[in-house]
Write a structure and sequence with these properties.
single chain, five-stranded parallel β-sheet, 14 strands, 37% helix, Rossmann fold, globular, five-stranded mixed β-sheet, alpha/beta, 8 helices
Length: 265
């Protein structure tokens, strides 16, 4: 375990240094930002070109503005988004942080599984529709709902949504999201709503909290041994060392026992 402890300390120092740099330089140049698989680029007439978690290119076009040439219909998303279907509750939580949770019109979890008051209330009144689990989406009901966009993690939904002329954005990645990507992912979502300032404020709050925790735990001598994963009927899925979850454990003064596992989350 001595080797693991040394790894944790060195990793902690690297993460802290990276966080300070990232807070100062969150983008990669004027009009372009990149974090993990996601990117946002300013183009002509107030439009933005974005790439989602699969590396697919889409263009965000302000309502009333013409889309630039060279894009298919299913690549064009009118902004700000007013009505969205969202697969992941984590994405809904970020939309709440941006102040646009009222745009959520469809979800893939039943009411009893939600802790976000606005979603539970919306499902009670019918403002938010349960569309079925991700593997059994009611696409006919989704079509009637007519959302501006579907924020999904399941790429198998793309062909059907394309056929229905409903834009789809994949919000997960093949490789686990590291802490920086998780923090800055809210900027990706914000670009669909024109809520960039709210995203910056959120990142500043999270960064401050991370710095505070790291300072408090930097000198700990006894480091708890931690694993992070989900237990299913026939398998256990763990978070890899390159995930935000593992990085948070290290920042909090713990030793992450799956430091030799790297890949998808």
């Amino acid at each position: 375990m001595k080797k693991l402890r040394l790894f944790s300390i060195s990793m902690l120092k690297w993460i802290l240094l990276s966080l300070f740099i990232l807070i100062l330089f969150s983008g990669c140049g004027p009009g372009f930002q990149h974090f993990g698989e996601f990117s946002i680029q300013d183009i002509e007439n107030g439009c933005k070109k974005v790439t989602d978690g699969l590396g697919r290119t889409l263009v965000l076009v302000p309502k009333g503005q013409n889309a630039p040439d060279g894009y298919e219909k299913n690549q064009i998303i009118k902004i700000p988004v007013k009505k969205a279907v969202v697969y992941l509750n984590a994405d809904v939580a970020l939309l709440k942080a941006l102040g646009v949770v009222d745009s959520v019109a469809g979800v893939t979890q039943e009411k009893e599984d939600w802790t976000i008051p606005e979603i539970k209330a919306g499902m009670e009144t019918g403002k938010v529709v349960y569309l079925g689990e991700y593997s059994s989406i009611d696409f006919e009901r989704l079509k009637v709902l007519d959302p501006d966009i579907v924020f999904a993690w399941d790429e198998s939904a793309i062909p059907m949504l394309t056929e229905l002329d409903i834009p789809c954005v994949i919000t997960t990645t093949k490789i686990a999201k590291d802490l920086k990507t998780r923090m800055y992912f809210i900027k990706f979502l914000a670009s669909f709503y024109g809520k960039e300032k709210e995203a910056d404020l959120f990142i500043a709050r999270v960064s401050k909290t991370i710095e505070s925790v790291a300072k408090k735990t930097a000198g700990v001598k006894i480091k708890p041994k931690v694993i992070w994963g989900d237990i299913y009927e026939k398998r256990v899925l763990v978070e890899p060392i390159n995930s935000g979850a593992a990085e948070m454990i290290l920042l909090a003064g713990g030793e992450y026992l799956f430091d030799d596992v790297k890949g998808a989350a």
